[in-house]
């Protein structure tokens, strides 16, 4: 079992930046592939970015060049640096840990608005 807690969301103006954090507890963090997903009102949850245990990353096309995923295994924490934010990035952002089973955090709200 893995417990995940996201933080760092909030209200930001278009063009601004936020850094999300996801702290894991309950199991060995380094063995999990980690990812960020988001869900906007009325839409399905979608992948934003993910990082494997070996550090390989992939990003959704709509965030390439703007968002960066990273992880610090010693701190059991994953990050999502979000730059050049757009109103369409408004969503609840969820942390995911995946190996055999998949675990989710409770989400953190990101609102991009002037």
Explain this structure:
The protein has strands at residues 3-7, 10-12, 18-25, 33-39, 46-51, 57-59, 67-72, 77-82, 91-98, 102-104, 108-112. It starts with a strand and ends with a strand. The protein has no helices and eleven strands. The protein is an all-beta fold. The protein is globular. Helices cover 0% and strands 53% of the residues.
Please give the alpha-carbon distance between the first and last residues. 40 Å
Helix content: under 10%
Q: Give, in order, the helices and strands.
A: EEEEEEEEEEE
- Global morphology: globular
- What's the helix count? 0
What average pLDDT do the residues reach? 95
Counting DSSP E segments of at least 2 residues, the number of strands comes to 11
Strand content is: over 45%
Radius of gyration from the CA trace? 13 Å
The main pleated sheet reads as: 7 strands, mixed
Q: List unreliable stretches of 5+ residues.
A: none
Structural class: mainly beta
Summarize the helices and strands and which ones pair or pack:
Elements: E1 3-7, E2 10-12, E3 18-25, E4 33-39, E5 46-51, E6 57-59, E7 67-72, E8 77-82, E9 91-98, E10 102-104, E11 108-112
Parallel strand pairs: 2-11
Antiparallel strand pairs: 1-3, 3-8, 4-5, 4-9, 5-6, 7-8, 9-10, 9-11
Brief descriptors of the model:
53% strand, 11 strands, mainly beta
Could you give a short description of this structure?
With 114 residues, the protein is mainly β. 0% of the residues lie in helices and 53% in strands.
